[in-house]
Design a protein that fits this description.
This protein starts with a strand and ends with a strand. The chain has a single domain, classed as Dodecin subunit-like (2-Layer Sandwich), CATH 3.30.1660.10. The longest helix is centred in the middle third of the chain and has 16 residues. The chain has about 70 residues and is α+β, with helices and mostly antiparallel strands. The mean pLDDT is about 95. It is elongated.
């Protein structure tokens, strides 16, 4: 049977430069902790402000990983 089961994990990545880097950081961290990742969905994008400038991007994603 080819039915598959996936686990959904929510993580938040951060970056001082770009949203894309924040996503990459979240994916890399989740891959070390969870294992075989298959897809992700952006849930939330927010940031921190310091001295009237964006100082950090924070991106929360849901990551699907295949379960054995």
């Amino acid at each position: 049977m080819n039915d598959r089961i996936f686990r959904l994990t929510e993580v938040t990545g951060t970056s001082t430069t770009t949203i894309e880097e924040a996503i990459q950081n979240a994916v890399k961290s989740a891959a070390r902790a969870v294992g075989e990742l298959r897809w992700f969905e952006v849930s939330e994008i927010r940031g921190a402000i310091r001295d009237d400038q964006v100082s950090q991007w924070q991106v929360t994603i849901k990551i699907g990983s295949r379960m054995e």
